[in-house]
Amino acid sequence: MKALDVVQLEVIRNALDTAAEEMGVTIWRTSRSSVVRDLLDYSTCVFDAEGKSVAQATCIPVHLNSMSSCLDDILRDDIPLSEWREGDLIITNDPYSGGQHLNDILTFKPAFVDGRLVGIAGVLVHHLDVGGGAPGSYYAGATEIYQEGFRIPPMRLDDAGRRNKEVIQLLLRNTREPANVGGDFASQLAALDIGVKGLHRITRRYGADRLAEACRGIRRQSEMAMRAMIRDIPDGTYSFEDFTDDDGIERDKAIKISVKLTVRGDTVEVDLSGSSPQVQGPVNCTRNMSGSGVFCGILMSIGSEIPANAGCYEPVRIVAPDGLCVTARSPAPVANRMAIGHRVVNAVMGAFAKAIPGRVPAAYYGVSYAYATNLFHADGRRQVYFDLTCGGWGGHPDGDGANGFSCGLHNIANAPVEMLESTYPVTFEAYTLVPDSGGAGEQRGGCGLIRAFRIDAPAGTLSCNFDRFKTQPYGLAGGAPGAASFAELQRADGSVERLPSKVAGKAIAKGDVFRLVTAGGGGYGEPAKRAEEAIREDIENGYVSRQAASAHYGVKAG
After folding, report:
1. pLDDT tens-place string over residues 173-231
2. Please, are residues 108 and 88 in contact by the beta-carbon 8 Å criterion?
3. CA angle, 447 then 451 then 452, to 5°
4. What is the distance between the alpha carbons of residues 480 and 327, in angstroms, rounded to a whole number?
5. d(Cα 124, Cα 45) in Å, to the nearest integer?
6. Full DSSP string of 304-320
7. Contact call for residues 505 and 517 (beta carbons, < 8 A)
């Protein structure tokens, strides 16, 4: 057999990428709930015969960076690769077996050709509701994982082609939205079949040996590219801290995320040991979740052009003892793990900003604004409306931060309000940018968003898992921090109630308006250096008010 050449390596790489994208398109076209169909809260990945990631679709980095770790954990602790058979399908959502939180159900299906394992298709989908103490399974009052929903240990859903339908029945019996969750789960399983067919197609064209050689080459290229990027960073230790507001239980206690970044030659060590101990409330991260945030922060700082696969993780070592908020022990609750996960990214990027000044942007809004309502209809029906939104991106050396821009860690899409209004008993009263929310700087931070909707159902409950109400997104190089977030309920009787960042089961009624204002991004550079022309454009576009222009920049633009 001729040695694999560069052209054929790239052809196989793109074929694997296509297999991953085909899985993603399958979910997009066949899923049922708005969280999957519109927000695109799912991810697809292709693994080689060793269980190492080699290709992924353009999906959710927080999923993709942890799917390899999850599969590693399953292979090490539960179902060794030697025991996988044709027709098997492995499933889990257990955060303490490699998962993230219970809504994210991971599935893996091996591809065999002529009796030989040639690869594995992987799909992760965020399911609308998996039970627990709150609609959407984001129970802000949880103090243990048992309150957060239906938990699936690593197991075979399909055993050599025979489906264990009872597992699906258990899942659907434990969700508030069986039709939506059942439809999304069927879509997830169909996507796995598409991925396996793609691996079959590639193997039959190029052969199992050549595919295995290509997968090793793909991983090696990413590893070498990552090492080259790291070598361009001066050796040294760089530290940064950021804070999550609270855990929703102890509301006056901020949670520290500490990063000590050590660069030695072509390797990076990320030490999280200085972070706060694990907390009572559901903002904790498991080790795999924090690792996902670390890898995302690194790639966003130095490696945006490096193909993300198992190879690029090789030069990175993560250090942290168990029992921290970033390495929680079971049975700590983890539903709102993104509150700390985003802050891991912010802190990693802050450390890189010290190592390579002038190359890293200021802090983005730094939280997945997750909220859910359990809406009660007059005829007794209930609906779970779950949604996510974003805020402003940090200013960077080459330009202003993007307005209302979903950051790389969660990379969600926008659920159109017209679709939401046609599906749920809600009416949107506002969905627009927040003037003056971007941090002042030579390069302005991006503006956050206002999102407000009226409840049209007779009654319901509201659950929120937010952050950045107290700790603002930091600026860099003299730039000001972005504006903080807040949320409120405007009651039908005209009264207004300011909400804390974490809310569990708040009663709502017809005519109430829920209003969320998200954080802006931090500014970059000294505000005094911002050009008058740029300030006038900001005023004309509604990003900055005349009063703020005068206060922050000393310019009275007419």
Report:
1. 999 999 999 999 999 999 999 999 999 999 999 999 999 999 999 999 999 999 999 99
2. no
3. 145
4. 31
5. 9
6. TTS--SGGGGTTEEEE-
7. no
